[in-house]
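Morning. Coffee machine broken again, so started the prediction first thing and wrote up yesterday's gels while waiting. Chain of 265 residues, entered below exactly as on the submission form.
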Amino acid sequence: MSDILAAIIADKHLEVAAAQKQCSPAEIERLAYLAPKARDFHAALASRAGARIIAECKSRSPSRGLFLDPYEPVALAQAYERGGAAAISVLTDGKYFGGALAHLSAVRAAVAIPVLRKDFIVSTYQIYEARAAGADAFLLISGVLTAAELEPLIQLGRKLGMEPLIESHSEAEFAEATATSGRILGVNNRNLKTFGIDLAISRKLAGLAQAKNPALLLVCESGIKTAADVELMQGVGYNVFLVGESLITHADPEAAVRTLITPSR
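Came back before lunch.
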């Protein structure tokens, strides 16, 4: 891992340890089972024709700095929903992305579509924590976890009613992801080691996915800015797109989502 990613993961382990002192593993598990039933993330992404957008709420990133000030995740998520988003992704990492679990809980209460916890998950504690906060799904990163480490987290998520999005960036990471029982695989065009973006990654890994298991639900992540980008990626096998920066920074995020799901010609 790069210095940045390694630092994030090291900090995440410290955050989990601190969180467990505030709320014990037994208590967070109890709260997870008390949460309202999870909305079906997989169905929301698979049941529509045409492009489906997972629209992201985040206030900043290590590579791009501050996106919004003030950052109002509820208003942003509601605009996304009005624009036709299939689901909402909420960054909950605080130190690097300015997020919080409270943002996720507030968004979940304000929209009717599934909400994904996007964070750097390294522990079962964070999955219980996500469900307790109202998350309907969560992100797992195969560049951080091996297939053997991913699978128990996938199974725990399903036990709680959540189907995870498993993210890869390289062929090696994709091999780890496809060695699991995961049903929703994301291809991140952003290299978390350099934060550079290359849409060729999605084109390359789409073919591998289709050869491995045509039933997999593929999600193209990062670098999608226009309806033309969406159509290009649809041409190689994607119908679901996780989009953040181009929506967050748009003057009219509702219209921006609508534009992405409307063919350009």
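The two ends are 42 Å apart (CA to CA). Going to sketch it on the whiteboard this afternoon.
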